[in-house]
Amino acid sequence: MGEAEGLTLSRIHDGKLTFSKTKSGKNRSIPVSAEFCNEIAEHLKVYGHFSNSLGAFRRALSAAKIYLPAGQSAHVLRHSFASHFMMNGGNILTLQKILGHSSINMTMRYAHLSKDHLYDALKYSPIK
Q: What is the mean pLDDT of residues 56-68?
């Protein structure tokens, strides 16, 4: 959340969002669609920054009767993104760069797959 809240107009260029002051201390640029870049830029032009919306997200979780361990409400979004990225055919090394992990082992912890995704073993297996 802190990385998103730190975005400025100067960090949006050439179809990429550049994050600074990351947990690893390294800057990271992530390509996104032109439409998403435009939406973010428009928001920043109007509001100047992204405010902390964690409270609203927690209220939505509570209303949906989804209970997470303390400190995990925003973190679950990273796990969900990683899982869906992989289930949609993403590459684990690309995901590592997107999430900014220095270790592939950390990325693998994030990339949980649904049980149904295991049926790809049947779909792609060379054994028929």
A: 87
First-to-last C-alpha distance (Å) of the chain: 45
CA torsion angle 42 14 34 37 (round to 10): -30
Output helix, strand, coil percentages for the chain, rounded to the nearest 5.
55, 10, 40
* pLDDT, average across residues 51-55: 76
Going from N- to C-terminal start, the domains of the chain cover 1-52, 68-128
Question: In whole angstroms, what is the distance from residue 119 CA to residue 7 CA?
Answer: 39
| Spatial distance between the Cα atoms of 67 and 41, rounded to a whole number of angstroms | 33
The model's pTM? 0.67
pLDDT at 50: 82
Q: How far is CA 68 from CA 53, 57, 72, 82, in A?
A: 17, 12, 6, 18
Rounded to 5 degrees, what are φ and ψ at 43?
Answer: -60, -45
Is the pLDDT reported for residue 34 higher than 90?
A: yes
Given a cut of 70, whether residue 95 has pLDDT beyond it is yes
The radius of gyration computed from the CA coordinates of the chain, to the nearest angstrom, equals 17
